[in-house]
Amino acid sequence: MWLNVERPLELGPALVLHGDHEHDDHGHDHDHHGPAPRARGRHPHLRKPQAPGDILVIRPVGGLSGDMFLAGLSRMAEVDQAELTRLAQGIGLPAIEGSVSLEQRAVAEVNGWTCRVNLPHEHAHRSLSDIRAIIAGSGLPERAAGLAEATFSLLAAAEGRVHGRPAESVTFHEVGALDSILDICLAAMLFTRLNPAALVCGPLPLCDGTIHCSHGLLPTPAPAVLELLADVPVRGIPSQGETVTPTAIALLKGFGAQFGDWPEMTIRRQALVYGTRELPGVPNGAIFAWGQAAVMSRI
User: pLDDT tens digits, the chain, 299 residues: what are they?
Assistant: First the structure.
């Protein structure tokens, strides 16, 4: 007969943290990434999985952005506003302190969550080495710092391919701005705090449209997003505009996401999160769920 046994589900090469080892919104109006996380020792803020087979699921119904990632991870990690503020302070950049708030928001009269970010605009052009220096000088736990660096390295590599230059020579414009640093560093801290055995994401929704950036008008998906979408399942939706930002796809890849259907699991926590925009004619938001994977065992 078949028994439902709660134990880790073998989902393949998602980011899994074993002991001391890791496996693996907006430049140009979006973001950028890079090399594998640095090998670092255990940090007291990194917890072991809460139970064998803990799994994080993201269903990007209407799209995904860096601030949506933050809202979803905050809810899954059960982080309140005071803790979120404290984590942002740990990044070590004064302009970031007190800049992010986790709020409830309703779209089509359905309540969900959003992260509102209020930062001063800046025109700084930062290289990948500049970003690495900011991360190295921050108060991020070591594994979170490694994931943040990997995410920016992936973005830099994608932008380098778009512009025909090495990743190290890429300069981050809007992408290197404070909001991207905030999104990526905070998301890395929250993800390592959760420490899932696997991250599973649904196919990413795409549609036609244009975006404004420092290079002028560009089609959607943005060129850097197109580069990072290699080997990623997508689906078309009947709307217009940017649905997946460079920060979001970089975070998914940097965190070792797998793409597919809902896994068999017992859901412990769930949240509907929204971004700052509403796409016309389609459902908006993304669903985040946290729980324990289950597999069928034959005896």
Answer: 333 333 333 343 333 333 333 333 444 333 333 333 443 333 333 344 444 589 999 999 999 999 999 999 999 999 999 999 999 999 988 888 888 999 999 999 999 999 998 887 776 778 889 899 999 999 999 999 999 999 999 999 998 998 898 888 887 765 457 788 999 999 999 999 999 999 999 999 999 999 887 768 899 999 999 999 999 999 999 999 999 999 999 999 999 999 999 999 999 999 999 998 898 889 999 999 999 998 643 43
Domain containing 49 equals 2-298
Q: How far is CA 272 from CA 112, 265, 284, 289, in A?
A: 5, 18, 10, 9
> How many domains, in total, are found in the chain?
1
Single-letter code of the amino acid located at 126: R
Residue-level length of the chain = 299
